[in-house]
Amino acid sequence: MSYIVYDFAIIGAGAAGLHLAQAMLEDEWFEDKKILILERDDKATDDRTWSYWEKGVGKWDDLIAKRWDTGLFNTNRKSINLHLAPYHYKMLHSIDFYQYAKKRILNSKNQAWVKEEVKSVVPGTIVKIHGSKGIYQAKQVFDSRIDGDFKTARDKYFRVIQHFKGWVIETKDPVFDPDTFVMMDYRIKWKNNTSFTYILPTSPYSAMVEFTLFNLELIDDHEYDELLRKYINEILKIKDYTVVKTEYGIIPMSNYPFHRSNKEGITKIGTAGSWVKPSSGYAFKNIEKMAGKVVENLKHNRSPSKGLLTPRFRFYDTLYLDVFSNDNASGEFVFETMFTKNSIQQIFKFLDEETSFSEELKIMIGFDPRPFLNALLYNISGVRF
Ligand SMILES: Cc1cc2nc3c(=O)[nH]c(=O)nc-3n(C[C@H](O)[C@H](O)[C@H](O)COP(=O)(O)OP(=O)(O)OC[C@H]3O[C@@H](n4cnc5c(N)ncnc54)[C@H](O)[C@@H]3O)c2cc1C
Q1: Widest CA span in the chain
Q2: CA–CA separation, 88 vs 385, rounded Å?
Q3: Cα(287)–Cα(285) distance, rounded to whole angstroms?
Q4: What is the pLDDT of residues 249-289, one digit of tens each?
Q5: Ligand 1 centroid to residue 94 C-alpha, Å
Q6: Which residues neighbour 325 within 8 Å (Cβ) at sequence distance 6 or greater?
Q7: How far is CA 211 from the centre of its chain?
Q8: CA of residue 91 to ligand 1 center, whole Å
Q9: Using one digit for the tens of pLDDT, what is the confidence trace for 285-323?
Q10: Which residue positions in the chain have pLDDT lower than 70?
């Protein structure tokens, strides 16, 4: 048992744990606070390609691998050019973020990094953390482990999954436009599900091509491969290419109230704290924002999770999840309408939860009302019409 009582302990040095640790390092209020980071992994692999949009200059610009100012949204019916200004779409390799953040933590005076698998956490005024190697104590714990009930509980919450496989491919011929990324291309789909290809080109000869589904079931590995091959051959018309890297991921898109697992002295963070935007699965930028809010709450002696989630936007997310769960085939049309009737700036603003109610109403009115009306009635009355 470690006899030190840390002011704060962070379990998990992934996106959320590291964003929070960095935000604490950058604020002098935390200079005299003892902070412990417990992570089971070395964080030495490039396991995620994080992309996000933001206006102008951002906090991680020195680490990003690529930035785009234009994008494309494609279906069989239309192709929409996305001119992002004043936003940029940025790509960051997780390894660059892990290494940068870990180095800063190791060089700091008040943050300690311990390689440890946490087994359980006991709430209280002093929280006890039981790891495989020892027991640690802290006044406040931030925990990025996902609540075990999420997978097993039978309840009213939607559990859509965003799952994807991406290949970084290299070609002999210059086939990609490195200035334009593809946000969604619905020309190849899995069955009739909400599924699309996403492309991040880094040069005329190289791109990450990723097949993504927003649905309720995982597919076999060889099915992603077939879909990727089909897209590369039939849509991109590339015959000669080499796969140099593969990425696979699953992101829960759910209105499950992860944050309700917060207990005395324990605040759930990241995916485990409902910090992933349920309707899109985008999380990186959201996590940065949430980490900033937690820091402000701590400085002002408020509950760390105060004001992190906005009920109005949680409700909109629930409507989208209802549509993906009960009328999955309409996903393509929902996105096509969204990209046709709204500027990309307005879509980003909405997804960033920065729109006003009247702007949201305008976005909602633009949709084919049927799936959303059904979802709305169900989520108000509990009866499916
Ligand atoms: C492949 C992939 C690509 C993604 N791409 C994007 C993207 O482009 N844009 C975007 O916005 N979002 C993206 N996401 C979604 C989201 O940004 C990530 O899932 C993000 O990493 C979530 O952060 P987190 O801290 O909650 O979880 P993680 O980053 O997974 O961190 C959790 C950490 O906790 C550690 N841990 C878990 N259990 C224990 C334990 N018992 N003891 C000690 N340590 C433990 C893990 O080792 C891990 O380091 C992607 C997700 C995946 C999987």
Answers
A1: 65
A2: 41
A3: 5
A4: 999 999 999 888 899 999 999 999 999 999 999 999 999 99
A5: 10
A6: 158, 160, 216
A7: 16
A8: 16
A9: 999 999 999 999 999 999 999 999 999 999 999 999 998
A10: 1-2, 369-371, 379, 381-385
Report d(CA 65, CA 52) in Å as an integer. 12
Pocket-forming residues, ligand 1, beta carbon under 6 Å: 11-17, 38-41, 48-52, 117-118, 144-145, 247, 249, 251, 270-272, 282-284, 287
List all residues 6 or more positions away from 98 whose beta carbon is below 8 Å from its beta carbon.
13, 18, 43, 44
Residue 266, helix vs strand vs coil? strand
Peptide bond into 252 cis (omega under 30): no
- Cβ contact 356:317 at 8 Å: no
Tokens encoding 92: 């960051």
- Tell me how many degrees the CA angle 188-193-195 measures, rounded to the nearest 5: 50
The minimum-distance atom of ligand 1 relative to the CA of 286 is: 11
* Single-letter amino acid, residue 313: F
